[in-house]
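Trying the structure run again after the queue cleared.
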Amino acid sequence: MFSKSKIAIVLATASLLLSTNIGTYIVSADIGTYIVSADTTTNDTTTSDTDTTVSTATNDLDSPNRTTTTTNATAKDNIDTAAVKAAMLSELNRLRSQNGLTQLTSVDVLNNYAQVRTDSFISTGNIDNHAGWKSINMYPYNYTAEENISQMPFSMIGTTNPTAIAQKVTHEFYSETYDSEPNYGHRKNMLNPYINYVGIGVSVSSTGMVYFSQEMGNDQAAYSKYDPADVNKYYLTKYNDYANVSKYDLADTKKTSADYTSRDDYETADIRGGVTTKDYLTPLYDRYGNKSDELQLSPNSDWLSDVIGIINGKYYYHVSTNGFVSADDVLPWASFLYGYSITTTGVTKVYDNSGNYTGKTVEPNSRWIVDRRAVNPITQAKMYRIGTNAWIQKD
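Done. Tokens:
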């Protein structure tokens, strides 16, 4: 027990991040979001993935519909792609219903383009950075155009049941459990309140790789119903490293404690990463926003965090059971799940955890392995961590 005369804290934070995946599977997914139609794509990062291969894993989904005899080579003949596409539309709209959003309408133009997209992946085998995506091909539904794409080997899917496949893909889009640079962008696309139409594509290669596409957007009539400022504001959230406030029964089954239960003046949003305290003793709060008289976090210390608690309209980061720190007192960061590297383009300034220039620089064309991404609290620019208390900015 801590006495009131001693301000200290010891928290077991290593087990905070929850495992909410359905079974064990690894996929490669990519996301695209564009407010208006565009012929060429742009990227939100100058980083490069150090490993573009798709790993394999054993699927441990305990399902009565699981097929154990279908091999990768015969998956093409056993997966009913039309049924999977219908199930994916149903699951997408079921997710939206859980979050009080309108249902998306399936239209032939988007379905046809989504199928063209997944068919093209069979020959190229490349879904990275949305290569080849042109929203003009979604016309007239190319306003607020979005794309979610994914690939998953059949050995990881482990079933031919259309509903089970749809739930796995939707769950991965929602949670980004195996995304190399998770930012919950797929979730934000699926739960975008300013889109009305969707098309879905599913293709299976002869080797058993299954490709999925969600193409979403509006026509001009639907787009004109929305205030452009509201649309822009929603899309700006894709640059944050946390999710919009949302729920999904398949992902939230283990989030049963009061720290994850919404109530009046309390909501939660997911984050995959943590926070670093600033250079002073940092107050700790409970889930009601009450400051602890006994416990504080030490200066410049790192803490894992799995959710943001929005308490009475203010943002707090969850660092322990019934323990939160104010967003004003920390630098939040997202962690990467795989090795990631960046290469500098010139003499590059190094910043500290508080966003201050340290007076140090790194050489041009030097490559750095990074494990965290954050936003500079002073300049609001993206930052990548290259060492302890050492960050370089995206630009």
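The longest strand covers residues 330-343. Worth checking whether this holds up in the mutant runs.
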